[in-house]
Amino acid sequence: MNLDNSKDADRCLIGPDGQPQYGRHPNAIRNINFLDFDFRSPMDRPRSLRAKKRRWNQFQFIACDLDTCFIGAGIVHLGIASYAFVYCYHKLSGQCLEERFIQPFGRKTCTGTSPTDSIFAFQKGGASLKITPDKAFRHLAINLPGKLLANITLVEAEHLPLSVCSRAGYDGWVYTSKKAGVIANADLDCPPLNINMTNTPGLATIDWSAGLMRRETFWNWASVTGQTGEHPFGLNIAAGVNETGTNENGLWWRNKLFSLPNVLFEFDRYQPLKPWQMYSEDGSVDLTFTPLMPRQERMHLGIVASNFRQVLGQFQGRIQIEKEILPIANAWGLAEDHYAKW
């Protein structure tokens, strides 16, 4: 299915009846007005504003594949803490620079309820990370003094978002706006990895997600970007979150966004560097992922916990769209296995 761009995004996710607009949307919803949600217990008892804010979680993640390196950066805001992470992987040497930061109670963290307009920012000590949307562009600025300085501009114009809202458990919901295969341009200086580049082109992924998520949840996710002939492509597939009546699987190719069927993930949870298989039952998606660099983090802060594996590597395989085959060979991307207790 080819998703069009015919509807206006200037609207709120929560309608006058206090309920989200579920399903796929042709554009990013501009205002995720979660405070207007009619939040009730499984036994229909109205819940407080405080309970609503406590269940609200959100994050934004950007990954960019450049000529000599792959860079990822994210800001996560939970009820009792916020954290940020940055990594830069040098493809030739296999070395990686990685930094993680936590701020109790969201100190020095800025987020917002709009995928299209809100600035996300995080600061701890001299380190800072900022994601700024600006009409047809999105800017990522990273400053890790003495380690990494990056300014990356993502060209979002004419790139449709994969915009999905679905139920999460009996009383919650989750919304996501994603893009993959976005044209990017980077200035980057990373002395520890001996990387210095100016005005370097690349392909990027954007993941903006928020909601009143399940108390305990998990997901598998993969994002791939690459080039076939003259056309860049981007792929997003997932299992475990947005699956109540819809999914968040899509392919950006030839300036269109195509819907994809549900995809199965097969991998060894305890040996994530073994090859992963990702495929659909109808055979239209058939991918093999070869891991190169694992990132793993286990965090337990009492009522909040996370067991997180994100692996960088290369994808091989094929995707069938209608009667055409998109071959995928040595395309860089990410695969993820994540358990969370919010």
State the distance separating the first and last CA atoms. Answer: 34 Å
Rounded radius of gyration (Å): 19 Å
Task: Give the overall average pLDDT.
Answer: 93
Q: H/E element string?
A: EHEEEEEEEEEEEEEEEEEEEEE
Question: How much helicity do the residues have?
Answer: under 10%
The outline comes out as globular
| Low-confidence regions | 1-6
Q: What topology emerges from the helices and strands here?
A:
Elements: E1 23-25, H1 49-55, E2 56-66, E3 69-77, E4 81-90, E5 96-104, E6 109-110, E7 120-124, E8 127-134, E9 137-144, E10 148-155, E11 162-168, E12 172-190, E13 195-212, E14 216-228, E15 231-239, E16 250-253, E17 256-259, E18 264-266, E19 276-279, E20 285-300, E21 305-321, E22 324-341
Antiparallel strand pairs: 1-11, 2-3, 2-13, 3-4, 4-5, 6-7, 7-8, 8-9, 9-10, 10-12, 11-12, 12-13, 14-15, 14-22, 15-16, 16-17, 18-19, 19-20, 20-21, 21-22
